[in-house]
Amino acid sequence: MLDTQTRPQPVDTTYRRPIHWRCQHATHAGAVRKLNEDAVFACADQNHWAVADGMGGHEVGDLASREIVQGLAQLHLPEALAESVERVEDCLQGVNQGLQNYARMELDGATIGSTLVHLMIRGRIGVVLWAGDSRLYRFRNGALTQLSRDHSQVEDMVAMGLINREQARVHQCSNVITRAVGVEEHLQLDMRLFDVRLGDLFLLCSDGLHGVIETETIARIMADRDPDLCAQALIDVALRAGAPDNVSVVVIKGEPGRVDSSNGRQCAQWER
């Protein structure tokens, strides 16, 4: 008989199936404004996405949002979550400083800025970084959940119990934000980590969407579960609602990837 200490042990060939993230994005100047100061970013190879909303009341907001997405596009992110987050933060701090310098030299110190929401996924963990009122939603099991919290005056008032959600939607200060990239000498970003699952849908959007469409309507559209259809439908509904601001969306869906069982390596190819 073989000694139990030398008996060959079974090899674990069970691999956790990877998630492939399929996305679609769209942006529109809206029904009123001629200039689109929003910018969207999508990098499927490195699983990170962003929406930046140049502030309409400030000088050259389109430059601010464009600088953000161009900075993100130059990044090469590793698989390690912590290191990737650090590189994104460093990038955004650099953009923030660049906008500050530009405002001092070219705009006589006038404010230039942009809101930002950035999503990154590593394995079964997602992390959102944001400044301002561009939002991240997750649609799971038929429920839509807001994962970011607006940096806005009315959101602070709601948190303090001064007004309710319905009052916040029509409040005269509803467009006053308290954080943005480029506004302060040192950029303050909020961050939240959360789990991700196969079948999850994520929506990144500017306030041009959530400012005119009720959450229930967004959830109804996301229930279609196809990124291409959802992205276009969200833009269309915002335009039908009058779209006084630019509208931008990125819709991402977690679909089953393929495991190469011959060597245990995970392949990012999507199986149809």
UniProtKB/TrEMBL annotation:
GO function terms (MF aspect): protein serine/threonine phosphatase activity
Domain PPM-type phosphatase residues, every copy: 22-254
Matches recorded under SUPFAM superfamilies: PP2C-like (SSF81606)
CDD domains xrefs: PP2Cc
Domain of life: Bacteria
A Pfam family per the record: PP2C_2
SMART domains attached to this UniProt entry: PP2C_SIG, PP2Cc
Xref: InterPro entries: PP2C, PPM-type-like_dom_sf, PPM-type_phosphatase-like_dom
Gene3D superfamilies: PPM-type phosphatase domain
Protein name as catalogued: Protein phosphatase
Organism: Marinimicrobium koreense
